[in-house]
Design goal:
The strands form two sheets. Strands 1, 2, 3, 4, 5 and 6 form a six-stranded mixed sheet that branches. The chain has a four-stranded antiparallel sheet with strand order 8-9-7-10, with helices on both faces. It has two domains: 2-167, Ribosomal Protein S5, domain 2; 173-330, Alpha-Beta Plaits, CATH 3.30.70.890. It has helices at 69-81, 103-122, 131-141, 185-197, 213-232, 245-257, 264-270, 272-283, 305-317, 330-335, and strands at residues 2-20, 26-46, 51-55, 86-92, 153-157, 162-165, 173-177, 288-291, 298-302, 322-326. 37% of the residues lie in helices and 23% in strands. The longest helix has 20 residues, at 103-122. It is an alpha+beta fold and 342 residues long. Helix 1 links the parallel strand 3 (51-55) and strand 4.
């Protein structure tokens, strides 16, 4: 028997970086939003022991050993439940690697879901992980994993691993552009630190300065207020409104409040083609376009699915890899996660 689970991607609606912490991480503020693009994870359990990782399209950047996030989290789940058997995890890659869409983290959480379901089917014992255990295991494996245990619209603080479910934003049409270039997240953080230590201008002040810890904390407090003001002004249900007015309000508020992704300040100078793609999304009619995470994926939000489809077609004619899709509410995220028939 095999259990198949869709491994949905995420985007970041704003991402703000604070100072480096003693543990090597940075304090962050971001709003995660799950979207309909996905990989597929298939898990089966047979006789024997060990964990086997396969990737259907054999992307060389996807590790097939114990460094893979799916392997690492499966190992922890088996240990937590005291379960045994040979676990086979097949990753059907559709999302870009090093793309800023949280693909590896989403793959790992989908593995947890599929593995628990498969264990329930193949074992008389019905023991499952508690929500607290899932969250603990996920945060041990990676900062982005916990958000995929929630889905929909999620506030991320700490170094991104501390997550809080927010009232769902309305479903919004969007275009995702995935360049061939991959951006290293550790390098992007290192470039950010180098920029701030060099006396970069803080966008929340009118002077240049080094970003010391107190200043970084003040900055995150300020942007927290901006995010709170934006979120508190939105309706608190995920139900679509007639004429797409709620989606339109979301776009207007994003533009009005100037919510942005700090990584653009260091990634765009290194990869100017990514700045050009953001410009292409805006030229194609997106009122709000942004880098997702540290990139290299960019997205543009649109007022309607028709406008998004037209824009994606325009970008493809320019030689860009672009696809029209939409955001997912929390209910949609979980309802669509299982793949019928495996």
């Amino acid at each position: 028997m095999t259990v198949a689970v869709r491994s949905f991607a995420k985007i970041n609606l704003g991402l703000y970086i604070g100072a480096a912490r003693a543990d090597g991480y940075h304090d962050l503020r971001t709003v995660y939003q799950t979207i309909a693009l996905h990989d597929v994870i298939r898990v089966s359990i047979g006789r024997g022991s060990g964990i086997e990782i396969l990737c259907t399209n054999k992307d060389p950047r996807v590790p097939l050993d114990s460094s893979n996030t799916c392997y690492r989290i499966a190992e922890r789940v088996l240990d937590e439940l005291g379960a045994h058997g040979r676990v086979r995890i097949e990753i059907e890659k559709r999302l870009p690697v090093q793309g800023g869409l949280g693909a590896a983290s989403s793959n790992a959480v989908a593995t947890v879901v599929a593995l628990e379901l498969e264990l329930r089917k193949t074992r008389a014992r019905k023991k499952t992980l508690s929500p607290a255990a899932r969250l603990r295991i996920a945060s041990e494996v990676g900062s982005d994993l916990p958000l995929f245990l929630v889905g929909g619209t999620v506030l991320g603080v700490g170094h991104g691993e501390e997550v809080y479910p927010l009232p769902d934003l309305p479903p919004v049409a969007m275009v995702v552009a995935t360049p061939e270039v991959g951006v290293s997240t550790p390098q992007a953080f290192a470039d950010w630190d180098a920029m701030m230590q060099g006396g970069a201008r803080d966008p929340h002040t009118t002077r240049n300065h080094q970003l010391t810890r107190p200043l970084a904390s003040d900055r995150l407090f300020e942007v927290g207020c901006v995010l709170s003001a934006w979120l508190s002004g939105l309706p608190n249900t995920g139900a679509p409104a007639k004429g797409g007015s709620r989606a339109g309000n979301l776009l207007l508020d994003l533009v009005r409040t100037g919510i942005e992704n700090d990584f653009e300040k260091v990634v765009f100078p290194q990869y100017p083609e990514l700045r050009d793609i953001k410009g292409a999304l805006e030229s194609a009619g997106s009122p709000y376009a942004s880098l997702s995470g540290s990139g290299s994926t960019l997205y543009g939000l649109f007022r309607s699915p028709g406008e998004a489809a037209k824009a994606a077609n325009r970008l493809r004619k320019q030689g860009l890899k672009a696809v029209a899709t939409s955001t997912l509410t929390r209910q949609q995220y979980w309802k669509k996660s299982l793949v019928a028939g495996g």
